[in-house]
């Protein structure tokens, strides 16, 4: 694929528009996920150009089938355009599926800490976007909210899942939303059961401890480097890692005669 005159034209044997990841401006790039198989680079381009001038579109593809893998990256000219795309395009439905849009630099930092909620007694009119808009008020949602549906009709089965990046957010959602009405039904909110376990729910002390450790590690990694800040060690006479010798004291004044 290639870009010509501000449009997308077909290229030979390529599924990348523009630069590779290491050449992209990550702060001006958004991640788009939960893409329908019918989505193409051209459609992604046409959709995201509504938020601002697009520089690159990349949908990673399977080497065997050449089908994209359900996610991609869109680079804008400016960080402001990328932020605007997140605001207006996140959770809109394309081919019946709500797409997830967030900053690519943010997506790298997000990991599953176990703050995963089960939302029950959902009204049939509740969709993924309403679930996102409702629960996003309590903290950063890390994945597209999932409503379980009948595989043949697509009708809601009355429950779904929401995942946060912290237990502070999930605890707040449980406390505030349990028993609240959403489309005329009081919903239930609790920690989801863990996969491959016998009745154990998320939110255990072990998960919370690991989440705190992960947050501390990320905070340390994002701390600015202060090794080269100016200070006493920069004065002449100081060796590597040593304090400079103190200046000699001024001679005492003679006593008055």
Itemize the secondary structure elements and their pairings.
Blueprint: E1 2-4, E2 7-9, E3 16-17, E4 29-33, H1 41-48, E5 54-58, E6 71-76, H2 79-89, E7 93-94, E8 97-98, E9 100-103, H3 104-109, E10 116-120, H4 128-135, E11 146-149, E12 156-163, H5 167-177, E13 188-191, H6 205-221
Antiparallel strand pairs: 1-2, 3-5, 4-6, 4-9, 5-6, 7-8, 10-12, 10-13, 11-12
Question: In a few lines, what is going on in this structure?
Answer:
With 257 residues, this protein is of the alpha+beta class. It contains 6 helices and 13 strands. It has a 5-stranded antiparallel sheet. A 4-stranded antiparallel sheet has the order 11-12-10-13, covered by helices on one side. A two-stranded antiparallel sheet has the order 1-2.
Strand order of the largest sheet: 3-5-6-4-9
Overall structural class, as computed from helix and strand content, comes to: alpha+beta
Number of strands: 13
Q: How large is the count of helical segments? A: 6
End-to-end distance: 95 Å
- Uncertain regions spanning at least 5 consecutive residues: 1-20, 228-235
Biggest sheet overview:
5 strands, antiparallel
Gross morphology = globular
Mean pLDDT: 80
Q: From the structure provided, what is the oligomeric state, counting identical versus distinct chains? A: single chain
Rg, Cα atoms, Å:
26 Å
Helix share, percent:
10-25%
Strand content: 15-25%
N-to-C SSE string, H for helix and E for strand: EEEEHEEHEEEHEHEEHEH
């Amino acid at each position: 694929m290639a870009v010509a005159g501000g449009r997308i034209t077909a290229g030979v044997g390529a599924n990348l528009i523009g630069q590779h990841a290491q050449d992209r401006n990550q702060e001006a790039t958004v991640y788009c996920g939960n893409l329908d198989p019918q989505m193409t680079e051209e459609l992604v381009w046409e959709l995201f150009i509504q938020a601002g001038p697009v520089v690159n579109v990349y949908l990673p593809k399977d080497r065997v089938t050449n089908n994209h893998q359900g996610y991609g990256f869109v680079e804008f000219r400016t960080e402001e355009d990328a932020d605007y795309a997140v605001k207006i395009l996140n959770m809109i439905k394309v081919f019946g599926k709500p797409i997830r849009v967030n900053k690519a630099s943010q997506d790298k930092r997000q990991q599953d800490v176990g703050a995963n909620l089960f939302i029950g007694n959902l009204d049939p009119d509740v969709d993924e976007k309403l679930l996102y808009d409702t629960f996003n008020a309590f903290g950063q949602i890390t994945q597209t909210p999932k409503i379980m549906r009948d595989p043949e009709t697509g009708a809601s089965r009355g429950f779904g899942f929401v995942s946060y990046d912290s237990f502070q957010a999930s605890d707040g959602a449980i406390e505030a939303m349990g028993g609240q009405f959403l489309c005329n039904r009081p919903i239930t909110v609790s920690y989801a059961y863990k996969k491959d376990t016998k009745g154990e729910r998320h939110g255990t002390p072990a998960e919370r401890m690991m989440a705190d450790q992960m947050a501390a590690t990320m905070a340390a990694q994002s701390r600015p480097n202060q090794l080269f800040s100016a200070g006493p060690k920069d004065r002449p006479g100081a060796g590597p890692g040593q304090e400079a010798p103190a200046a000699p004291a001024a001679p005492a004044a003679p006593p008055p005669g």
